[in-house]
Amino acid sequence: MKKLALFIAMIVGVLNPVQAVQSQSGQAQGQGNGAGQCSGPYVLTARQSSGQTYDPNENTSAIVRINLQPAASDTPQGCTSLPVSIFPQSASTFTFGNGGNAIGFTQVNSGLVSQANATRFELSGNARSQLVRGTPVDVDLFEISAGQFLAAGEYQGTVLVQVGDGLPTPVLFTIIVRPAIKFVIENGSLQKDLSFGDVTDGSTLQTTVFYQSNAAVAITIQSQNLGSLVHEGGSAFGNIPYSLVYDGTPVNLASLAQINRAFTGLGTRREQMQLRVEPQTRKYAGTYRDVLTLNYTAF
Question: Which of 64, 90, 156, 174 could make an SS bond with 142 (beta carbons 3.0 to 4.6 A apart)?
Fold first, then answer.
């Protein structure tokens, strides 16, 4: 009687492409009248200063900030009285979207903001004073909570910055959601130990992999013994070839194999592997083994 065991190690791989993210900046200008007030032009340059990327696999939240800088260092002190407002461009609330998808977030009410709600931020007197003195200000606007499994891609939203009664200036915010994979882990481990049992008359076994992906997936499959189960005593005692069909696709285990899967949604994928050993004769009794490694990479 010959007993065979096949070990499969599942290794998670995530491709995080490095992308340069440039946020669009704008200039907001306001002007007041009268002695002791804002007697000249008051111009602020605004841009996104953090939160350009979001990783669904990270366990920490991301903060989205706006950087405000005075265009001149000699702004009249009376300009401190001018309100500085931040509000959404084309909706009643702030949104960051990608087609039909949107990022969930909460608004931050920091010490530099006197008012924060779904439709508007108003800078505090302290923040306005810093700007008039020529000091740049970074204001926390939104907190993107951890654990959101979103479709990969570029999410955008435009906010308007207004100084006093000047014309609002648009500032484009961009957040790139990185490709990510989550496995549905069985028995608390990404490793499966499988056994063909007695293969004198041949044997077939099946196993299923469950995972989620927010992008397309490349699956590489590698057999330690190039598609053969090797006797526990070493190759001198023989080996037994076996075949693998991954989710309907035959796999050549004689070399590193790759299968690509298109992105079909955020739901759990169920992909089945079928492994088969043909009937065996004139083989040494004992246990034969191989290690099959599957690497899943979202891209």
Answer: 64
